[in-house]
Design brief:
Blueprint (H helix, E strand, L loop, with lengths): L2 E7 L3 E8 L2 E9 L9 E10 L4 E5 L6 E4 L7 H12 L32 E8 L8 E3 L4 E2 L3 E5 L4 E3 L6 H14 L4 E5 L8 H21 L7 E4 L4 H9 L4 E6 L2 H14 L7 E3 L6 H4 L2 H8 L3 E3 L5 E6 L3 E7 L10 H23 L3 E6 L6 H14 L7 E3 L7 E6 L24 H16 L7 E6 L1 H7 L6 H9 L3 E5 L8 E6 L1
Parallel strand pairs: 1-14, 11-12, 14-15, 18-19, 22-23
Antiparallel strand pairs: 1-2, 2-3, 4-5, 4-7, 4-13, 5-6, 7-8, 9-10, 10-12, 16-17, 17-18, 19-21, 20-21, 22-24
Length: 509
């Protein structure tokens, strides 16, 4: 398996595309406007306490207040609040919790008004980003994620990822974790900790402890609400969670960002430093790797699959419905049941990809083609579980019902990725302007450009692939005409992301 991370940067956003064997499986975006991300820790202020909901609204500096339920306070909330009061004065310096006096844990069935008062300062962590009309979901059970382990302040628990199935490896990791666990902190060993030595685990632990100490130092004299600890940027968090021996390349079109990524990889996996590459091509990076084309093919309401089959994906506020259709595929199977199983297996693979690609969360109901035998239903169920095994987001899959319905729940921590794939008609009457008219407009602009000193460098014309094909026709190529007239070769770049009548000139010395 070949894994590649392709990163596109511009002035306000960074886009991350994860490719498996050249096929787009995950798409992420990081915007400068995004002030709240999952994992961020805020020094916040409690708002109205609602006894009926056993919850409180909390001001984290967002337009909508965060929602904090009693069950999200954490059993050690009294210890956290006591610690916050002490360090807020600026006089208490024991941030490592070595000599801190812990408070009694709260009752599981208690009331939030006994623990939290309006206008009280409180440390909270974002567990779900704002979605639609709702504010962020928050928790006071703080955690700091590293590459191999998660540091949990005010906890004594040591646990190992459920994805590590080998009992001997689980016991080994628990023993190692207990040997390095600092007093006052709990540890959760992540899946990637499998097979790691104690020195690697301890180095990761020390990095997380340093983040905790730096956060505590920021709190004295800090106004609320303020972000006191930021989660890693999206590029680093992706690398932290998925970087493994299967990664073959990380390609970046921004030198400054590439340097940041090299620095981070030098810290977490020095042996993989050589896979980071600077992209310097003239064709935009997402088009060079075929990502733009895959995005347009994958984000519509209808998604085509192999052998003529297709999916229809529809959305509501909290429910997604996916319908599997066999389409006009040629039937080479021995029976209708064989055909149904074949199409359903193809669909399961694509559905697992779509859930990651669109970051669909909540309840997903899939209407597979009906299958009469339990054996085929079990084959489909096992195949879908295997395809979704690499999905890092928490999820649960129920076996197919007699009607072929499969229910999936997938954790929803940020808004779904939604990309518009339909383009408006260029003209109100729905008719597309003739290419020759567009060429005339381009020709006028080219003459203006060539009348300036820009003619000394290379000139690139970015156009829709259909228009590019028209301009580069073999016999009467417009490209050759321009060269004959202006003694200047205009390089034509097909752009998958462009609409039919969109074009742009760019220059390079």
């Amino acid at each position: 398996m070949k894994l590649e991370l392709v990163i596109r940067s511009n002035s306000s956003d960074i886009d991350f595309a994860l490719l498996r064997d050249g096929r787009l499986v995950e798409l992420n975006n990081e915007s400068n406007d995004n002030k709240i991300s999952v994992g961020d820790i805020f020094l916040a202020k409690a708002g109205k306490v609602l006894k009926g909901l056993n919850a409180s609204f909390v001001d984290v500096g967002y337009a909508k207040d965060g929602f904090l339920h009693y069950h999200d306070l954490g059993a050690q909330i009294n210890s956290l609040n006591s610690f916050l009061k002490k360090i807020s004065t600026g006089n208490y310096k024991d941030f490592t919790l070595n000599k801190f006096q812990f408070e009694k844990d709260i009752d599981k069935g208690g009331s939030i008004d006994k623990v939290l008062k309006p206008k009280q300062n409180i440390l909270v962590q974002i567990v779900k980003e704002p979605i639609s009309t709702k504010g962020p979901r928050i928790s006071s059970e703080l955690s700091i994620a590293g590459r191999y382990l998660v540091l949990v302040p005010f906890s004594k628990r040591v646990s190992v990822s459920q994805k590590i199935e080998d009992p001997k490896e689980k016991d080994r990791l628990k023993k190692l974790a207990k040997s390095i666990k600092p007093k006052g902190f709990g540890l959760i060993l992540r899946t990637v900790a499998q097979g790691k030595k104690v020195a690697e685990l301890d180095k990761d632990l020390q990095n997380s402890l340093q983040k905790w100490v730096e956060m505590c130092k920021r709190i004295p004299n800090t106004n609320t609400p303020t972000k006191v600890l930021s989660e890693l940027n999206r590029a680093s968090s992706i690398l932290r969670d998925v970087l493994n021996d299967s990664f073959t390349s990380i390609v970046v079109d921004d030198q400054e960002l590439a340097t940041e990524i090299r620095d981070y990889i030098q810290e977490i996996a020095p042996k993989k430093l050589g896979i980071v590459k600077d992209y310097e091509g003239n064709t935009p990076i997402f088009e060079k790797y075929g990502i733009e084309r895959q995005i347009k093919a994958a984000f519509g309401e209808t998604v085509s699959m192999s052998k003529g089959a297709y999916l229809v994906i529809e959305h509501t506020e909290a429910l997604h419905v996916i319908d599997v259709n066999s389409g006009n595929r040629s039937n080479k199977a021995n029976s209708q049941q064989d055909t149904a199983l074949e199409v359903n297996l193809i669909a399961a693979t694509e559905i697992a990809r779509q859930l990651r690609l669109r970051d669909m969360g909540g309840i997903i109901v899939v209407d597979f083609i009906d299958m009469n035998t339990n054996e085929n239903r079990q084959k489909l169920y096992e195949h879908l579980k295997n395809e979704m095994a690499s999905d890092r987001t928490k999820h649960k899959i129920l076996p197919p019902s007699k009607f072929g319905l499969v229910q999936i729940t997938r954790q929803r921590v940020r808004p779904e990725t939604n990309i518009k794939t339909r383009e408006p008609n260029p003209n109100k009457n729905g008719e597309v302007e003739a290419p020759i008219v567009l060429v005339s407009k381009i020709d006028v602009e080219l003459r203006k450009i060539l009348s300036t000193n820009k003619r000394n460098g290379k000139i690139f014309l970015h156009v829709h692939p259909f228009v590019a094909a028209y301009l580069r026709r073999r016999l009467s190529s417009q490209q050759r005409t321009w060269f004959a007239e202006h003694k200047k070769w205009i390089r034509i770049i097909p752009r998958d992301a462009y609409m039919y009548l969109q074009y742009k000139f760019s220059f390079k010395k």
